[in-house]
Amino acid sequence: MPDTLRGITIPWAALPDTAGLLEYLVRDDVLCWVRRDGGLAGFGEAARFTATGPERFRAASAWWRTVATGARIENHVGGPGTGAVAFGSFAFSWTSRHASRLIIPSVLVGLDGGRGWLTYLTCDPDAEVSAAAAEAALAGWLEGVAAGRAADDGDRLVPGQVSEEDYRAAVTAGVERIARGELSKLVLARDVVAELASPVATAQVLRELAVRYQDCWTYAVDGLVGSTPEMLIKVDNNVARARVLAGTLDRANIRKRDGESDADYAQRVLAGSEKQQHEHEIAIDSLTAKLEPYTSAMTSHSEPFVLQLPNVWHLASDVTAELGRGGGPVPSSLELAEAVHPTAAVCGSPTELAGALIRELEGMDRGPYAGPVGWTDGAGNGEWGIALRGAVVESPTRVRLYAGCGIVEASTPEAELAETWAKFRPMLEALGLRG
Ligand SMILES: C=C(O[C@H]1C=CC=C(C(=O)O)[C@@H]1O)C(=O)O
Fold it and tell me: Where would I find the Chorismate-utilising enzyme C-terminal domain in this sequence (predicted)?
């Protein structure tokens, strides 16, 4: 347990009008959670917690509750994301060797609906905690910002642990198991590795993702980076929200009818597909069933809508749930993330069987891919996305990208393989690579 966490949050008007938080994505070690011009950017590390195994969420929640309850914070702003905050990333599987982690930044800049704040946090009992100390600490972190990087002819993309051939074989085996009636859906993933001729410019990658994928949440936590379209769970006071995605159509490979608009094409081919609707239905049912015990009222669209991203269209459903069933305690965002992870959008249905089959057929450790990534504050508010469309920076010149697809009985290996390439595209483009 760290020494008592102390800190201060002050209003921060020094957020440039044009680029907002993007102006702070200038260090390769930045912690970030950004969507459009809002979110959080963190620097440095006041304390961290790590855990592996089936108790990783519970242990992290207990640690955070103790730290946040004992914290002495002068909060001059108030509201979600102010005061004590930790960024986090959790391994997809309880079997993973990858350490799940919570990181309390030393300095954090937040922006929500035009309202900005600056937080300074420390476990050093001798540190001065004041508005001046907060401003000086931020200025220190913004000195000597990271250089950008141009794509290099020496950059290469090489197969990861699951080759294209392995992936096709895994999909074939998955479809067989579904056809035998063992399960209804399985999400199978693979990886590719970017070997770069010069060190990756993470801050530049984040800025590119944030600018291009404005409907997504761009994240960076300790080497895990990406831009996810899927919100596992957001808690804002007594309300939880989720965005469930399943069902995908590549925008780079359109075969429109004469006179058909892009939107009509997506509506016909994606929303009109029984296979895609079935895949989506399983994902939404899994989320709502897992959320049910915590909520007194839940609403979602009766039909999924088509979400357009620069690389793909998805079938999407937004869910809103009032928390605190029967006046009982309101769960924290981290507790809810544990309760709903893994949904059928990244695992399958039924969950346990799908999880075991993923381990058998993929044969790779997913690490933090498809696990919760995001932040929590001392009041339990927070946002936990699913770490999709992302990568792990394994060394300055080695970046591992992950992508997966929901497999149902009607899936074909070739189409699912092609879909993984569409899902790698955001990171490949941000790294200056081609698939
Ligand atoms: C598992 C991934 O995407 C999920 C989220 C949206 C759509 C999906 C699909 O259509 O297969 C996947 O369930 C991934 O991007 O690696």
Answer: 164-423
